[in-house]
Amino acid sequence: MLDMPRSCKSIIHSVMNYGLIFWGGSSYSANIFKIQKNITRIITQCRIRDSCKDLFKNLKILPLQSQNIYIYIYIYIYTYFICG
Fold first, then answer.
1. In the chain, what are the helix, strand and coil shares in percent, each to the nearest 5?
2. Is residue 36 a contact partner of residue 64, using CB atoms and an 8 Å limit?
3. Residue 40 near residue 59 (C-beta atoms within 8 A)
């Protein structure tokens, strides 16, 4: 039971990061964020109306918007300072 949240988190995180560059700023990102919240609730066995803010902190998961910001900052730093 203890490995299920870790394995689910790693699978979901990798899929979201893979597509984040392409659809991070699109209108579908709101739907993806809802899916992320629902999956987080399922992993932690919480109710559908529970807030996910604390769940993200406890599981050490970045919400979709924060992942989007992180990816774009990483791309900016890599592009202008490392490849520059």
1. 75, 0, 25
2. yes
3. yes
Whether 2 shows a pLDDT value over 60: the answer reads no
Q: Return the sign of the alpha-carbon dihedral for residues 42, 30, 53, 70.
A: positive
Determine the residue type at 32: I
pLDDT band at 1 (very low <50, low <70, confident <90, very high): very low
60: left (phi over 0), alpha (psi -120 to 50) or beta: left
Q: Which two tokens stand for residue 22?
A: 């392409």
CB-CB neighbours of 56 under 10 Å? 16
Contact 58, 45 (CB under 8 A): no
Dihedral of the CA atoms 42, 44, 46, 52 (nearest 10)?
-90
Q: What does the domain layout of the chain look like in residue ranges?
A: 3-82
